[in-house]
Write a structure and sequence with these properties.
Length: 409
């Protein structure tokens, strides 16, 4: 369970921002909205994290930061040209020479090896705790040039000091540990590219612990910013090869009452065509004639289901776009234990302008993003401000009491 995010000098985030989502064990939770940060922990984190704020306040930037870290962990070794994709520093003179920094903290199995992992998968109790992953990108004249430092540390049982799993400096030198041994992999250190992470590089060459950690990063699914029509073909091609997902999607479309009774694929010279059977209509409707809301739901459905099935993270930008206000809380509730869908404590990170959803959220699930007059984004959980548990979040937010609303005039 991801419970902390730190970001500095990334897009509209200039100064270090720390989002701590830990929830005290005494907070009541009848619906199962929170999960232990690791198995057996008293401290919990919310399964749903909803980002609110005015336009351009930094909501998308928070999701981009998560996506960048996950992409660097799992895919950076595939980059064959210098530099980085999906990264920009804050646009002022001083920030052109300051590093871009990220850190995440999450729970998991300690001293991770394939043997320990197999024991855990067979139901044997193994030691749990917290991990901290840090990534720093060096800048030169405003351009990201290389990884300045990278580290993975663990804290067994979430107590005591952080223990090194591995550390890497700007010269590419790597310090290992018993958990992350370099034995048999020293040659990879010598060829480690300045824009490839240790985890991504070592996993490619079958380092056992790196592979397990990269597999964890592959359980994070991102739909950042509105998904436009140019990716519709990718969605249709994916669904064509996933009959189980299509079956579940068909059931949900019927249940949420959008008028769709069925869907099927028809082969054409231009690839598969997705057709929808509607109640009362004699002819099936093609994809492009479906409502924007139905298509938006279908596009996000694989991300949500994949996270729920794997116990991962689904991060969806502007989740309320084209989704009916009554339908949005239902999708959020899928992640609560009371729904019976979230057996592996998956997390949903979403950005939204739908203030009505706030009435369905606890303060631990709400994050406010604000931008000051210098263009700098700031973020904080409602846990960081004085908010009563029985407060009307909808009214308070729209009144400006929490911040994160546009100022008109």
């Amino acid at each position: 369970m991801l419970y902390k995010l730190e970001v500095e000098n990334f897009f509209s985030i200039r100064d270090p921002q720390v989002l701590d989502l830990t929830v005290d064990g005494k907070v009541p939770d009848p619906e199962g909205r929170y999960a232990p940060i690791f198995e057996g922990a008293d401290v919990r984190a919310p399964k749903v994290v909803a980002l609110y704020g005015a336009n351009a306040s930094g909501k998308t930037t928070v999701l981009r930061a998560l996506e960048f870290v996950a992409t660097m962990i799992r895919d950076s070794v595939a980059r064959t040209v210098p530099g980085f994709a999906g990264i920009e520093r804050f646009n002022d003179v001083e920030s052109a020479y300051r590093p871009i920094r990220f850190a995440i903290e999450l729970g998991g199995i300690m001293n991770l090896t394939p043997e320990v992992f197999q024991r855990a998968m067979s139901g044997e109790k193994v030691e749990q705790g917290t991990y901290r992953y840090e990534l720093e990108i060096e800048l030169k004249e405003g351009l990201a040039v290389r990884i300045g430092s990278e580290a993975l540390r663990q804290k067994p049982n979430g107590q005591g000091k952080w223990q090194r799993v591995y550390e890497r400096n700007a010269e590419g030198k790597v310090k290992d540990s018993k958990t992350f041994s370099l034995s048999g992999f020293q040659h990879l250190v010598k060829t480690l590219a300045g824009n490839h992470t240790v985890l991504s590089s070592f996993a490619k060459f079958q380092h056992p612990t790196a592979q397990l950690l990269v597999d964890t990063a592959r359980k994070a699914f991102f739909q950042i910013e509105p998904v436009h029509s140019f990716v519709d073909r990718d969605v249709i091609d994916y669904l064509k090869n996933q009959p189980n997902v299509v079956s579940r999607l068909r059931d949900e479309l019927s249940r949420i009452d959008v008028g769709v009774e069925g869907m099927r694929f028809q082969h054409t010279d231009n690839g598969p065509l997705l057709l929808f059977k509607h109640a009362g209509l004699a002819v099936e409707m093609p994809w492009l004639m479906e409502s924007h809301g139905t298509r938006a739901f279908i596009k996000m459905f694989p991300f949500i289901m994949s996270a729920l099935d794997m116990g991962g993270i689904a991060a969806i930008d502007e989740m309320d776009a084209a989704i009916h206000p009554n339908m949005l809380p239902e999708l959020v509730r899928w992640f609560y234990a009371a729904s019976g869908r979230n057996k592996f404590n998956a997390q949903l990170w979403l950005s939204s302008h739908s203030a009505s959803l706030l009435d369905d959220l606890n303060k631990e699930e709400i994050v406010i993003c604000e931008k000051d007059r210098q263009g700098r984004s700031h973020l904080y959980s409602l846990m960081d401000v004085k908010v009563r548990r029985d407060e009307n979040h909808y009214r308070k937010y729209l009144s400006g009491a929490y911040g994160g609303v546009p100022h008109l005039g």
